[in-house]
Amino acid sequence: MHTPGSHTSSMAAPGVIFTGCGAMNAAAGSAPADKPAKSSTGRLPVMVKGKRVKTIDVHAHCLIAEALALLPEAEAKSIYPPTKGSKEFDIVLDERLAGMDAQGIDMEVLSINPWWYGKERDLVTEVIRLQNEGLAELCARQPDRLAAFASLALQFPDLAVRQLEEAVRKYGLKGAAIGGSVAGDEFADPKFHPVWAKAQELDVTLFIHPQSTPELNKRFKGNGWLSNVIGNPLDTTIALEHLIFEGTFDKFPHLKVCAAHGGGFLGSYAPRMDYGCFIYPGGCNPDIKLKKKPTEYMRQIFFDSLVFTPEALRHLVAEVGASQVVIGTDHPIPWNPHPVDHVMATDSLSDDEKAAILGGNAAKLLGIKL
User: Fold this and answer.
1) CA 341/CA 104 separation, integer angstroms
2) Which end of the chain is more exposed for a tag (fewer CB within 10 A), N or C?
3) 300: helix, coil or strand?
4) Residue 24 confidence (pLDDT)
């Protein structure tokens, strides 16, 4: 990875910090030399069956500097380590758009990883206000290129309900980005039901982005960045399993959930869920009667495509269906600098399925015009 230098531009976006999960000072990789020529807009055209496809990335990150400024300086820097040679909050919108162009991405849906779940009510109320207003302002500058998921103070569910409604109805945000749990409390806890009920009522999406699995920090020490490589997908897996097994999806059958990083490990070993309570009934709650087999709930969850190889994407689609997969890049972190190639190289997908994953599914999920 490399760190970006300082730039100037007429499209500068003061107060916006574009960043990614777990390594907030890394920059996106460059496009390969054999990419097709850019269009007059500077974007790489994506074609399927001879038709231009609008590509939509649901997993991209930024931060709002004004919200971070409410924290002590040292704490703010721990959330966003400033890059060497760059002003701390001097981020340029043109850089993000150029990065999207290099990836062949027409639109990104921005989100902010929840760092505020442990904050007190007055502070977090102002943090969320600044973030949601900032995201809305940013999207208004480039409505054809940017959309966003709201932030919510989930540690105060009554507040989160109001924040979600305001974000959707007033600011036009596409739903909300949430963590993998809330200070150790699982999303299946009934105290969060009012938030899920409001999301279902508004018909908007909840984008689950993990925050590692802090209970395992000691075991994650050592080589390999295991807190991210294992901790992040594990956090998402646990969150989704609880939503399934505690009957949350039965209570809210129209709840739209999209999971980052291909849904963690869920898609890789999903059938084991169907056998757990049969093999060991003592480990299950007899009062919870699921309406479907556990694996069947995966067909109503959406998953991003950040699984790295065509074979992994083939398997994810086989488990959940092509209609449930959307592009996710984690931009600007260069986990997958060529997300379109990743989909196109999955030979098991039909042309229609490729077009759906590249943008059609996300457009339907988020109400974005193609």
Assistant:
1) 9
2) N
3) helix
4) 36
pLDDT at 43 (0 to 100): 65
What is the distance between the alpha carbons of residues 43 and 304, in angstroms, rounded to a whole number? 22
- DSSP per-residue codes, 263-308: GTTGGGSGGGHHHHHHH-GGGS-TT---SS-GGGGGGGSEEES-SS
Q: What is the largest CA-CA distance in the chain?
A: 63
| Residues of the chain predicted below pLDDT 70 | 1-44, 80-91
Q: What's the rounded Cα separation, in Å, for the pair 159 and 53? A: 39
Pair of tokens at residue 217: 């920090």
Q: Are 329 and 335 in contact (CB under 8 A)?
A: yes
What phi, psi does 100 have (nearest 5°)?
A: -65, -45
pTM for the full predicted model: 0.89
Q: Please report the sign of the dihedral spanned by the C-alpha atoms of residue 180, residue 184, residue 189, residue 191.
A: negative
Q: Which domains does the chain have, with CATH numbers?
A: 46-366 (3.20.20.140)
- pLDDT, tens digit (0-9, with 9 covering 90-100), for 8-52: 333 445 466 666 554 433 333 333 333 444 444 566 689 999 999
